[in-house]
Amino acid sequence: MPTANQSAELDHSIGFSGKIVDSVFLHPSLNEYILIAGSSLVVRDLQDPHSQHFLTAHDSQITCLAVSHNGALLASGQRGENSDIVIWDFVNKKAIFRLSEHDHEVSLVAFSQDDKLLLSVGNALDGKLFIWNT
């Protein structure tokens, strides 16, 4: 806590709307967390508040996020004309697959317990459910 003669310095901040359920996840390593920020994912280090990575491959609002149980993969879905799902290599922080079967919006993505399958569900206008082999 700064004294009366010292000024406080902002160390770091987290900004998100909170309108998306499950928009912040703790990575299984317990060293990083992932959050949705518009059309990007932000990976932040819990030990170093200045360390962050922006994962960008979507062209519209990300609507859902899942982290594989082993922590190797992320999956994110979006709304809009290109309601795609992007599968991310977490270690290398890069997109490795784009799944383009949904229309309107992806409402949910979830990995199976063994991380071999990914479930994706569209919104009511989309009306689709897929099980992908990861």
Describe this structure in words.
The structure is a single chain. The protein is globular. The protein is an all-beta fold. It has strands at residues 24-26, 32-37, 40-45, 52-56, 62-67, 73-80, 85-89, 94-99, 104-111, 117-122, 129-133. The protein has a single domain (24-133), classed as YVTN repeat-like/Quinoprotein amine dehydrogenase (Methylamine Dehydrogenase, Chain H). A hairpin with a 5-residue loop joins strand 5 (62-67) and strand 6. The mean pLDDT is 90. The strands form two sheets. Strands 5, 6, 7, 8, 9, 10 and 11 form a seven-stranded antiparallel β-sheet that branches. A four-stranded antiparallel β-sheet has the order 1-2-3-4, with no helix packed on it. The chain is 0% helix and 48% strand. The chain is built from no helices and eleven strands.
Summary keywords:
134 residues; Methylamine Dehydrogenase, Chain H; 4-stranded antiparallel beta sheet; globular
Present the secondary structure layout.
Elements: E1 24-26, E2 32-37, E3 40-45, E4 52-56, E5 62-67, E6 73-80, E7 85-89, E8 94-99, E9 104-111, E10 117-122, E11 129-133
Antiparallel strand pairs: 1-2, 2-3, 3-4, 5-6, 6-7, 6-9, 7-8, 9-10, 10-11
